[in-house]
């Protein structure tokens, strides 16, 4: 009885080994085995709700191998663009290996969210934009600033509602029809110096001139949202990003100590 069981196990094991090493396609110098095929096909099935048929997937694998071998034949591995992409993949692979597991363990507490929000509240503003186009010359920017100063002086003296002044003077066609209102925004959705200026204002206050890449802004703070009513998902994402950034900073601060690095920052000013 024991002998019969042993024989059956041997036959079963031998059959499986033969099947797993059976070749489903030979593409030039590359053999695609049943084991290779099943492993890759199961990965695709787990990643999509509409996987290809086995026949189509086999065709995809064949095309992939044909493409790789054709690329090697043409020495594309020596092409500078290919080498740069390879370097990028190597860099990403290093980070995924060394930092990826730590990033996955990041947790964000409600307390951390509240502390972050206290320094980065959601704001609502309306603005008058005196724009200058991308690539504007110094003279064009100076002309826009002169006009902005004149408009700001008029805004400070005027007794008309800010919304009316927006419709008279603003170059922002999108917000102009809403009296300059750009809705609730956060530090992650506003230009930094615009947000900084607004965050230091009192509700109802008007301030100018704030320069951004879009032009000169005269802005009015119309609201500061409480933490209870804020976009919690966005806050959680912002805190998560800060923690992830700190992981990256710590990682490279340590890694850079193993290398001789010389920088000439004056060359990029």
From TrEMBL:
<dbReference type="GO" id="GO:0003755">
    <property type="term" value="F:peptidyl-prolyl cis-trans isomerase activity"/>
</dbReference>
<protein>
    <submittedName>
        <fullName>Peptidylprolyl isomerase</fullName>
        <ecNumber>5.2.1.8</ecNumber>
    </submittedName>
</protein>
<feature type="domain" description="PpiC">
    <location>
        <begin position="120"/>
        <end position="223"/>
    </location>
</feature>
<dbReference type="InterPro" id="IPR027304">
    <property type="entry name" value="Trigger_fact/SurA_dom_sf"/>
</dbReference>
<keyword id="KW-0697">Rotamase</keyword>
<keyword id="KW-0732">Signal</keyword>
<dbReference type="Pfam" id="PF00639">
    <property type="entry name" value="Rotamase"/>
</dbReference>
<keyword id="KW-0413">Isomerase</keyword>
<dbReference type="InterPro" id="IPR046357">
    <property type="entry name" value="PPIase_dom_sf"/>
</dbReference>
<dbReference type="InterPro" id="IPR050280">
    <property type="entry name" value="OMP_Chaperone_SurA"/>
</dbReference>
<dbReference type="InterPro" id="IPR000297">
    <property type="entry name" value="PPIase_PpiC"/>
</dbReference>
<feature type="signal peptide">
    <location>
        <begin position="1"/>
        <end position="17"/>
    </location>
</feature>
